[in-house]
Design goal:
Blueprint lengths: L1 H15 L14 H12 L8 E5 L9 E7 L2 E6 L2 H16 L22 E5 L4 E4 L4 H6 L4 H13 L2 E7 L3 E7 L3 E2 L5 H10 L5 H5 L8 H5 L14 H20 L6 E2 L8 H5 L5 E3 L14 E3 L4 H17 L7 E3 L13 H16 L6 E5 L10 H8 L7 E5 L12 H4 L2 E6 L13 H4 L2 H7 L5 E6 L8 H9 L9 H13 L4 H12 L37 H13 L8 H31 L5 H9 L8
Parallel strand pairs: 1-3, 4-7, 5-8, 5-16, 9-12, 12-13, 13-14, 14-15, 15-16
Antiparallel strand pairs: 2-3, 2-4, 6-7, 10-11
């Protein structure tokens, strides 16, 4: 008891002392070459002659700076890094050209001659990091991607700078800026695991039983599942191809000066290790997701076993070797993703985290561990358990992703993670569902509150949605919140968003989004976007407003009104990719809401014995079998 009390006192002292931030080096890169390549790919080569690019020094604390102005008739883009130059291009596109880049790769609408900036602008980057991706995102949205798609997406990351006005002088505007500079980079790691486990004599058959299938790799990497339940193991051709893809991904991220988060060892091992090293301390993880025992209950290595450090060290050494000596020194690993530790005492939890960071620093003394605080959402993790686990890692060796900050934030109940650096993250989406839903008023102010209460430990903003290609407005706003000093005024922000998205000011388009803000985007979070019951296993008890809600708390008539305004805008708004996408998206939501309303009517009648099965069919399908619901 005395020992536990001492640890609690030490944790409290840490939160009151100066914060020891994790230090990461930006990769060396040719910033001008990187942004010229981006402009040629995304805007077109002809625009290179209309723009000039120059690298300038960073501000005193090493953070990025950029400037936009007029250079003898050319649009002048100046910045201290590849991402700073890319942010400048994005700022110019939004503010002067009124167009928008997004993750759907919608075609930019550009004039033949670029307009000159209306004023000289200087941007000083005050955020440290902007993180991007959930470990699940690759399996929900990206696992089929080749280089063509990845190249466009990395360009989107680089361009995706957000901004807010800081001060305006007579001749210059000064802005805060941020963008994605810390992306997850997990592709192709199975090649590294092969090289690692070969050094521990694990056979190909043993690894085949360990690696998850191609579309389930995310959960295999997290230690939730093992093996492939489809025909045949993970193909070597796929493993090799994914590693080659990762080489291209990392090269391009480094070109822009991003700091990719690389994989590391978290304790999950092939079953064959238990036979090759019979004296090693191993155990089985809890059953996950109701999968059959053959595909879950993953074998784990006890953190106190010397083999733990050896495997972790070897993995990072092999990863660095296979990538030609490159490492970002930032490693993402989660030992207990949606699983509870086998013990809850301080000594065990302290040692469990210490082993992870020690296995990293044995290979890379500069290593920083990036961990998802999603682990701490489960009932096992109280204040003391979180403190014990985090105590095994020095403050300057860890950054935590508060993965679900908008709904179940961990930072308030962990004293800002006991002095460690952390990133406020918006999860918002589970399973890649596409229902229109969000809480823009909350997102426009809550990160400001969190940063103000963080005692300097909150070092950035992150997007950690499980699936992308949905509700883009939610993420566009969240990125802007990276270092806003005051809550965003949505009454001003929303019209600008609509104008940039459709490349024109239009009353109907603006009114459509105003109606969406009053309905689907003003919903207190129930945990994820709305799931349509069209895609849910049929039953009478399928409606709820809790986690992954199937019911709606808003007035669906407002969505119908938004839909009407959007259709009314069609004659005036250019039929761009973004506009057509939104027409389809809102139409889908209107139909889903209508289906939901009819389902409720049918249920009331059927449960009350006021309707027959035949009448249910007629209500849904009509006499000509055409759907009405």
């Amino acid at each position: 008891m005395l020992r536990q009390t001492m640890w609690q006192m030490l944790g409290a002292m840490c939160t009151l002392s100066l914060v020891a931030h994790a230090m990461l080096d930006v990769p060396s890169h040719d910033a001008v070459a990187a942004v010229k390549g981006l402009v040629a790919r995304r805007l077109g080569e002809k625009y290179l002659d209309q723009m000039s690019f120059e690298v300038i020094p960073a501000i005193d604390d090493g953070k990025d700076v950029l400037e936009i102005g007029n250079d003898g008739g050319k649009v002048q883009i100046r910045g201290s890094s590849g991402t700073a130059l890319a942010y400048a291009v994005q700022w110019y596109l939004k503010q002067e050209v009124h167009t928008q880049t997004n993750w759907d790769d919608h075609v930019l609408q550009l004039p033949d001659t670029l307009p000159q900036p209306s004023s000289t602008v200087r941007v000083e980057k005050v955020s440290k990091y902007t993180y991007y991706q959930n470990v699940c995102t690759v399996s929900y949205s990206m696992w089929t991607w080749g280089w063509d798609k990845w190249e466009k997406h990395i360009d989107w990351m680089a361009l995706n700078g957000q901004y807010s006005i800081h001060s305006v002088g007579a001749h210059a505007s000064h802005w805060f800026s941020t963008g994605i500079n810390m992306p997850l980079a997990f592709t192709g790691q199975e090649k590294v695991w092969q090289a690692t486990y070969q050094k521990f004599n694990v056979s190909t058959v043993g690894l085949n039983k360990f690696f998850a299938g191609a579309s389930f790799l995310a959960w295999g990497r997290m230690g939730n599942v093992r093996g492939s339940w489809v025909k045949g193991p993970l193909a070597q051709e796929f493993i090799d191809g994914q590693f080659e893809l990762q080489v291209k991904i990392l090269t391009r991220m480094r070109d822009f000066g991003m700091i990719p988060a690389l994989p590391a060892f978290a304790g999950h091992i092939p079953e064959e290790i238990t036979k090759l090293y019979p004296h090693a301390k191993t155990f089985r993880s809890p059953k996950w997701g109701n999968f059959p025992d053959a595909y879950t209950n993953v074998y784990m290595l006890d953190s106190s076993d010397p083999l733990y450090i050896e495997i972790g060290r070897t993995f990072i050494e092999e990863q660095t070797r296979l990538h030609g000596g490159f490492t970002s020194s930032l490693y993402q690993a989660d030992t207990y993703n949606e699983m509870d530790p086998s013990r809850g005492d301080h000594e065990f939890l302290h040692q469990a985290s210490k082993a992870v960071i020690d296995s990293m620093t044995k290979a890379d003394p500069k290593a920083v561990w990036l961990i998802q605080a999603w682990t701490f959402n489960r009932g096992f993790w109280g204040h003391d358990q979180i403190q014990s686990y985090l105590s095994g890692v020095p403050n300057d060796k860890m950054i935590l992703l508060d993965l679900y900050s908008e709904t179940i934030p961990i930072w308030p109940r962990s004293a800002n993670f006991f002095g460690k650096s952390w990133i406020y993250c918006l999860l918002h989406n589970f399973g890649g569902n596409t229902g229109l839903r969000g809480n823009l008023p909350q997102y426009a102010q809550e990160p400001i509150h969190a940063r103000g209460q963080s005692n300097g430990t909150m070092v950035g903003i992150g997007l950690t949605m499980e699936g992308i290609f949905q509700n883009y407005i939610v993420y566009d706003l969240t990125l802007q919140m990276a270092w806003e000093s005051k809550p965003v005024d949505l009454a001003k922000w929303l019209p600008a968003f609509v104008r940039n998205r459709y490349h024109i000011e239009n009353t109907n388009a603006a009114q459509a989004w105003h109606m969406l803000l009053q309905s689907v985007y003003n919903v207190g979070d129930g945990g994820g976007v709305t799931k349509s019951i069209v895609a849910v296993r049929p039953g009478w008890d399928i409606l709820h407003l809790t986690f992954q809600p199937t019911d709606i708390p808003y007035d669906p008539r407002l969505v119908v009104t938004a839909w009407s305004h959007l259709l009314a805008a069609a004659d005036a708004v250019p039929h761009t990719d973004a506009f057509l996408h939104d027409v389809v998206d809102v139409t889908r939501q209107v139909l889903c809401d209508l289906f939901l309303a009819n389902f409720k009517e049918i249920k009331r009648a059927f449960i009350g014995h006021n309707i027959t099965t035949e009448e249910v069919s007629t209500l849904c399908w009509g006499s000509h079998r055409m759907p009405r619901c």
